What does this fold into?
Amino acid sequence: MDLSLSTRTEGDRTVVVVGGEIDVYTAPKLREQLIDLVSSGAYHLVVDMENVDFLDSTGLGVLVGGLKRVRAHDGSLRLVCTQERILKIFRITGLTKVFPIHTTVDEAVAATD
It folds into this structure.
């Protein structure tokens, strides 16, 4: 399966909609997208993972790397995810303590840092 990416701006947030599988093969595409956004001055990101079917450790690494990049600019990276199988990965790895995880994009965009 491939990875689909699209971005849009909502207020001062940039929403990255991700679909498909984030794995060792597709993660570089997401990494490049996050690097490009931060390079262009988008420091408050919301990653919508509602259409993600699979996430592996490489994908987690890309998200952590994105978080480090935005934090270097006093930014934020919030996740939108309600799928139990994906949320379980964040719980097992302890990353629920690192990433704010929201149930809707509206909730993530409205959240204050």
Q: What stands out?
A: The CA atoms of residues 55 and 89 lie 8 Å apart. The chain has one domain: 3-110. Residues 57-71 form the longest helix (15 residues).
